[in-house]
Amino acid sequence: MRRTMNLSIGYFIAAMISGVFYREFTKWNEYTQPTVLGVLHTHLLILGVGVFLLLAVLNKQIKIERNKQYNSFFLLYNLSLPLMMLTMLLRGITEVKAISLSKMFNGMLSGVAGLSHIGLAIALCLLLFIIKKELLREEVKQ
C-alpha cells in the first residue's frame, strides 16, 4: 500500500506542475486557443492520483496486491501513463509554439500516443479482472 500511496502523491505533484506549466506557458506565448496541455492536468489527476488512491483503499479492504497479476497491471499502467503524458506534453508544446511537424514525426507521435492508450486500456481491463477475482475471494471467505 505504501508504494501505491507514494505513486499517487507523485502523480499529484506532476499534475500540479503540469497545471502551472499550462497556465504559464500559454500566457508567456500569448496563446488563447484550446490545447492538449489544458487536459494534461486533469488526466494526471484522474488517471494518476484517482486510480492509485482507489487502489490504496481497495488494497486496504480486499488486499488486491496479493493477486499474482497485480504486478503485471502495475508495470504496464506505470509505463503507459507517463508515456501518454509525455506525448500529450509534446503535442501541446508544438501546438502552442506553432511548430510544424514533419509527416513522419507527427505520425510517430500519434502512434506512440495510441500505443500508450492501448497499454492503459489493457492495464485497466486487467485491473477490473483482478478486483473481481479478489472480491469473489472475499465473498467466499464470508
How much helix is in the residues? over 70%
Task: Give the percentage of residues in beta strands.
Answer: under 5%
Radius of gyration: 18 Å
- From the N-terminal CA to the C-terminal CA, the straight-line distance is 23 Å
Number of strands: 0
What are the low-pLDDT stretches, counting only 5+ consecutive residues below 50? none
Shape: elongated
Instruction: Report the average pLDDT across residues.
Output: 95
How many structural domains in the coordinates? 1
Oligomer: single chain
Instruction: Assign the structural class, choosing from mainly alpha, mainly beta, alpha/beta, alpha+beta, or little secondary structure.
Output: mainly alpha
Number of helices in the DSSP assignment:
4
In short:
InterPro entries: Cyt_c_oxase-like_su1_sf, DUF2871. This protein has helices spanning 2-28, 37-62, 70-96, 103-141.
